[in-house]
Design a protein that fits this description.
By secondary structure, the protein is mainly α. The protein is built from eight helices and no strands. It is globular.
Length: about 160
């Protein structure tokens, strides 16, 4: 259990990033990460040494999120990017930096508007750099479903950020 505890600490930033993609709420993401880590530590004997601990804990986190949704039947909380637009338009920044920040804001908004299933896959594959097979195992879906969701997510982000 001590070895898993040390590895969990190094996974915390990645777990939080995935939790944020799921919950869209920093405080709820922190709660989900804490819950997943507690479950991982309590069930450490279920993890098989030599296999990917990160994939196992991502699966626990994903299941904790599903349990949370079932229990609360709440809508996902959206972070309103418009609250940050005043900082983006600060005239002390160069034009290139402002355009870059606006582009980033457009991409963040497009990702936030993705259906949960597509956002999950996008974060696991593109941000966490997991293989399609690993993402499929974490989400409990076939590999083809992961590929399809990722393709649809990428297409939606492209369309949202390149709309005329």
């Amino acid at each position: 259990m001590a070895a898993i505890g040390h590895e969990l600490v190094s996974l915390l930033p990645r777990l939080r990033r995935f939790a944020l993609a799921l919950t869209r709420s920093p405080s709820l993401a922190d709660d989900m990460v804490q819950s997943a880590c507690e479950k991982a530590l309590l069930n450490a004997e279920q993890w098989t040494p030599g296999t990917r601990l990160d994939a196992w804990v991502f699966r626990i986190l994903h299941n904790a999120w599903i349990d949370h949704l079932r229990q609360h039947k709440a809508d996902v909380i959206l972070d309103d990017v418009r609250n940050h637009e005043d900082r983006l338009m600060d005239h002390s920044h160069g034009e290139h930096e402002v355009i870059s920040k606006l582009t980033l804001t457009d991409v963040q908004r497009a990702i936030a508007e993705l259906p949960t299933e597509q956002r999950e896959v996008l974060v696991l594959v593109c941000v966490e750099d997991l293989a399609y097979r690993e993402a499929a195992e974490i989400l409990g879906v076939p590999v083809g479903t992961v590929m399809s969701r990722l393709a649809r997510a990428r297409k939606r982000i492209f369309e949202a950020t390149h709309a005329a």
